[in-house]
Design goal:
Length: 442
């Protein structure tokens, strides 16, 4: 009632210390008492006529058609209103304001979808606070409970899961179950005596997948037995009947026995136990559920679906993390390549400068030497020898002019080659562990 009055007053600032009012406002929206608008990166709420009536009379407006206190318009708004955007930042803020636990009592489909979308954004973007994981129950029905828990606590909390109903007959058979029964029985590794019960368990799984909006199919690689797909993530499962060691009497000796009291030899063999099991995971780290003395395989189906939900979340998180790392590796390589080009150009110009300095010093040395030759030639008494010496000095000066970089103005610039750089030129300037010839995938 306080939140409804706050909306009537125009949603003034300073009333609330946390984000709990938003959850209450969404509940009022479900009941048709207010309307919530989160478009254009803003949050606002307005009271409806039904809300004003409720605030004044402390009860819902009577339904003129006699269908109960809630108006038809309110019911329609609950079932068909357009879900608005809920950012991952807002969801984390709500969780932190509620000590890490946010409960939305039996939300309308669009409200549930609103929060599920925000949950998916948090998981995909890795937006949960450092050291914490986002977990939720009530994905498809009942109360939606979202928790922000530490990674340490994530592996230790156990919660009793609601049972999953199992059929007693196969009057209505899922297409995949029918295929396993009629066309691909070899994918179901059970004895004939256990096959009917195994099919009933599979039908229970198929029914629950339908309720949750999951996909239930055969595995595409023709491996036994089925797969469950959620949000594009497929988990394969192998259903089988466990074996056990049991003494088995030789049929031939039993036929040859003449007297009832005559001993017949038996050997210990692996035989079907009647216990059904479902297994998933890798060979080195399998996860399984099976018939045991205190429970049946059907009793363990809630744990199987909890595993599917958890492994889907972890797979989505890993895909998002791998994608971020792939992008970061590619960006780091591209930045390193750009840096290598800069270093190569700098090194190229340094080498050019060193060459020009060496050539300039040689030109000056040649000119000084040519001057000494001319002075020596002037002092010669032999005219022919003097002439030859002057010729040698002139050639030396021409060689100095040819060597002197100052006589080539086009070379007196900082070069920036763009297309002439080869990969082999850049390899020496790449960081350790990176190669210009092995770029990470895009």
């Amino acid at each position: 009632m306080r939140v409804l009055k706050w909306v009537v007053d125009g949603c003034p600032d300073g009333w609330w210390e946390d984000y709990s009012y938003k959850r209450t406002t969404y509940a009022l929206d479900d009941r048709g008492l207010v309307t919530v608008d989160r478009r254009r990166n803003s949050w606002s709420a307005q009271v409806t006529d039904d809300g004003r009536y409720y605030l004044e009379h402390r009860q819902y407006r009577p339904n003129p058609e006699g269908g109960g206190p809630r108006s038809a318009a309110a019911e329609q708004r609950k079932n068909s209103r357009v879900a608005v955007e809920l950012s991952s930042v807002d969801l984390i803020a709500e969780l932190q304001a509620r000590d890490g636990v946010l409960t939305i009592p039996d939300p309308a489909p669009n409200t549930r979808a609103l929060y599920r979308s925000a949950i998916s954004k948090v998981i995909s973007a890795g937006a949960a606070p450092e050291g914490y994981l986002l977990r939720h129950t009530g994905r498809d029905r009942g109360d939606l409970v979202i928790r922000l828990i530490s990674r340490y606590d994530a592996g230790q909390s156990e919660e009793k899961l609601p049972p999953i109903p199992a059929p007693t007959t196969l009057e209505t058979v899922d297409e995949t179950v029918r295929t396993l029964r009629d066309e691909r029985p070899e994918l179901l590794d059970v004895a004939d005596s256990s096959r009917q019960r195994a099919l009933l368990v599979l039908q229970a799984i198929a029914d629950e997948c339908g309720r949750r909006g999951y996909e239930f199919n055969l595995r595409p690689d023709n491996a036994p037995t089925f797969q469950i797909s959620v949000d594009g993530v497929s988990t394969g499962f192998f259903m089988f009947e466990e074996y056990e060691n049991r003494p088995v009497v030789s049929e031939d000796e039993l036929k040859e026995a003449k007297y009832p009291w005559q001993r017949v030899r038996s050997t210990v063999q692996k035989v079907r136990s009647g216990r059904l099991a479902i297994q998933t995971g890798s060979r080195n780290s399998p996860v399984s559920w099976a018939d045991r003395k205190r429970w049946s395989l059907a009793d363990r189906l809630p744990d199987l679906f909890a595993y599917v939900e958890q492994s889907t979340i972890e797979t989505i998180e890993k895909r998002a993390r791998d994608e971020r790392e792939r992008i970061e590796r590619r960006q780091a390589w591209e930045q390193a390549l750009d840096r290598a080009k800069q270093l190569y150009v700098t090194d190229l110009n340094r080498r050019r400068l060193d060459d020009q300095l060496a050539a300039s010093r040689r030109a000056e040395d040649l000119r000084r030497y040519a001057d000494r030759i001319d002075r020596q030639a002037d002092a010669m008494d032999d005219a022919e020898a003097s002439l030859q010496a002057h010729h040698w000095a002139a050639w030396t000066k021409s060689e100095a002019d040819r060597t002197d970089p100052l006589h080539r103005p086009a070379d007196l610039v900082y070069v920036k080659p763009a297309e002439d750089i080869k990969d082999s030129d850049l390899e020496a300037f790449m960081p350790r562990g990176m190669s210009v010839w092995r770029p990470p995938p895009r």
